[in-house]
Amino acid sequence: MDTALETQSLDEAKLNQFVGRMLGDMGATMNAALILVGDKLGLYKALAAAGPSDAAALAKRTGTAERYVREWLSAQAAAGYLGYDAASGKFRLDAEQAMVFANEASPVFLAGFFQIAAAAFRDEPKITEAFKTGRGVGWHEHDGCLFCGTERFFRTSYNHHLVPSWLPALDGVTDKLARGAAVADIGCGHGASTIVMAKAFPKSRFHGFDYHAPSIEAARQAAAEAGVGERVSFAVAPAKTYPGNSYDLVCFFDCLHDMGDPTGAAAHVKETLAPDGTWMIVEPFAHDRLDANLNPVGAIYYAASTMICTPASLSQEVGLALGAQAGEARLRSVVRDGGFTRFRRAAETPFNLVLEARP
């Protein structure tokens, strides 16, 4: 044992408790790869549709090999992600588990998150090198799993919160959208948020902008498939130079903290807003103090910030590196430095802050 450790008095009960926690985390980490397998092969959806099944039945239903499916089912049951009945030898996906893994319309569908996690592992060598050099890693430099996973993970919140609660929390915005408004969605990615709004407000026109060209192509295809292509446009443009003016609403969904110069982006928003326009900023939920964020949500967001958000900002000009846990006070400072005089928290969820800024 290391000499430094030998001099410390160890609390054996605390050590055992911590090792026990690590065993749980190790199992979760290994099963994360199996969640990707189950999601890609449709194993969760098939099990949810069929009801209790053994490996042979599930393999036949999904066109997969029984021996692999048997091991996958056993691992998922050991992790508590599936149920198992010893008497019948059948596995099941309870209604609650199906909401998380099989139902993409569910408010708690999480399978997309594990694509983000997969990208984090694949990108680890780049981030490790960035630790040594201090240089950034741009969004576009990440593994492709990140882009699809981000769209699927955040789409859940947009589907269930954006139109029912977030937009109504803004002063007078839903009335404008219902009558017909011009909206810019900055950092739109694959266009999930843009399309959700376009479906809800057919009299308004929506313009999505993102600097990542492959994401813009994916957004255009998604809009066409959703039947809103005539009222939605997507173009490649960064946050500080996107085109247009007199927007009634400008939206930044989970992207302001990723920007190298968020203050510069704020100033450009102010220039492109109509005189009575609104800037909606949706950011990861965070308190203003580190100690208040030391919880399971903070663990997810600080890790994502280390692997994705902070490197993205450091790869750009200024490189302010707000991080995914910036907190309301720092965000307010950025917005006010960009020229806005009114700022308030309009709504929140356990995962998001919804902020409203006015000129």
Would you summarize the structure shown here?
The protein is of the alpha/beta class and 359 residues long. The chain has 15 helices and 9 strands. The longest helix has 30 residues.
> How many β strands by DSSP?
9
Helix content: 40-55%
Q: Could you report the average pLDDT, rounded to the nearest whole number?
A: 96
Kindly estimate the percentage of residues that lie in beta strands according to DSSP.
15-25%
CATH architecture of the largest domain: 3-Layer(aba) Sandwich
Largest sheet: 7 strands, mixed
What is the name of the CATH superfamily of the largest domain?
A: Vaccinia Virus protein VP39
Strand order of the largest sheet: 5-4-3-6-7-9-8
- The CATH topology of the largest domain is given as Rossmann fold
The radius of gyration over CA amounts to 23 Å
Listing every helix as H and every strand as E from the N terminus to the C terminus, the arrangement reads HHHHHEEHHHHHEHEHEEHEHHEE
How would you explain this protein's 3D organization?
The chain is an alpha/beta fold. It folds into two domains: 3-101, Arc Repressor Mutant, subunit A (Orthogonal Bundle), CATH 1.10.10.10; 160-358, 3-Layer(aba) Sandwich (Rossmann fold). Helices cover 51% and strands 15% of the residues. It is built from 15 helices and nine strands. It has helices at 3-6, 12-41, 43-50, 55-62, 66-78, 95-101, 113-122, 124-133, 145-166, 173-179, 192-200, 213-226, 262-272, 296-314, 328-337; strands spanning 83-85, 90-92, 182-186, 205-210, 232-236, 247-253, 273-284, 342-348, 352-358. The strands form two sheets. A seven-stranded mixed β-sheet has the order 5-4-3-6-7-9-8, sandwiched between helices. A two-stranded antiparallel ribbon has the order 1-2.
